[in-house]
């Protein structure tokens, strides 16, 4: 039985969808809440889809109009069109790293992402890697990223009968929110600077391991499984 639960963030960790998710979510908010506006300092990175929808609807003065579930349904339709018409880039070393971990009996590989589950599937199917992720915790489980590690741990226990705890849970992501979301569970945090946050910025949040990218994926593999 695997003794390590390895959980990957999606956007800017596994893939770059070239803004497909952001475009779909802004359009869905406009269609369902009837509002739009400037993002200002607001960043999507490290947040969840329902959290982003609620934040921006409030920021732009939706005043109780619209509905998060309806907006998510619209978002899924729009995202499907974006993904069909666009390009999902698998980030350097990811194909090798995820494939090697999925083939390693010591690792149970999964997702920990602010994407809703259907959005995660749409974004990852073009990479051919989607079937390698055996468990997941999603933005559709909670709008708060800090809730998601416990959801993933519970699903992994249902799947394997094993209770993954502490450093045996590995959370991999590109934002300070990814580094910090598992802190209360004492997980191993692996940060990768393939998103908006630099190596220096991520280092300030003291992840257990930090990489500029996964092009030298064996070092990450050793850090995750070692
Ligand atoms: Mg990310």
Main attributes?
six-stranded parallel β-sheet, two-stranded antiparallel ribbon, 14% strand, 226 residues, 41% helix, alpha/beta, single chain, binds magnesium ion, Rossmann fold
Enumerate the strands of the largest sheet in spatial order, edge to edge or round the barrel: 5-4-1-6-7-8
From the alpha carbons, calculate the radius of gyration and give it in angstroms: 17 Å
Structural class, from secondary structure content?
alpha/beta
Could you name the ranges where pLDDT drops below 50 across 5 or more consecutive residues? Answer: none
In words, what does this structure look like?
The chain has 226 residues and is an alpha/beta fold. It folds into two domains: 4-17 and 88-225, Rossmann fold (3-Layer(aba) Sandwich); 20-85. The chain is built from nine helices and eight strands. The protein has a six-stranded parallel beta sheet with strand order 5-4-1-6-7-8, with helices on both faces. Strands 2-3 form a two-stranded antiparallel ribbon. It is globular, with a radius of gyration of 17 Å. The mean pLDDT is 96. The structure holds magnesium ion.
């Amino acid at each position: 039985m695997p003794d390590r639960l390895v959980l990957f963030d999606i956007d800017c960790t596994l893939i770059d969808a070239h803004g497909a998710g952001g475009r779909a979510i802004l359009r869905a908010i406009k269609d369902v809440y009837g509002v739009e506006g400037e993002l200002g300092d607001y960043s999507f990175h490290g947040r969840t889809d329902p959290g982003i929808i609620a934040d921006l609807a409030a920021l732009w003065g939706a005043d109780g109009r619209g509905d998060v579930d309806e907006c998510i349904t619209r978002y899924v339709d729009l995202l499907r069109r974006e993904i069909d018409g666009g390009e999902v880039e698998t980030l350097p070393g990811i194909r090798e790293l995820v494939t090697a971990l999925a083939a390693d009996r010591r690792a149970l590989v999964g997702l920990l992402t602010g994407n809703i589950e259907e959005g995660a599937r749409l974004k990852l199917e073009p990479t051919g890697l989607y079937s390698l992720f055996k468990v997941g915790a999603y933005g559709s489980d909670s709008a708060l990223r800090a809730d998601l590690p416990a959801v993933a741990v519970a699903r992994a226990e249902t799947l394997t009968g094993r209770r993954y705890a502490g450093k045996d849970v590995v959370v991999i992501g590109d934002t300070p929110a990814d580094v910090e979301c598992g802190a209360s569970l004492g997980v191993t945090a692996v940060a990768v600077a393939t998103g908006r946050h630099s190596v220096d910025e991520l280092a300030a949040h003291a992840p257990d391991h930090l990489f500029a990218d996964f092009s030298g994926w064996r070092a990450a593999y050793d850090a995750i499984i070692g």
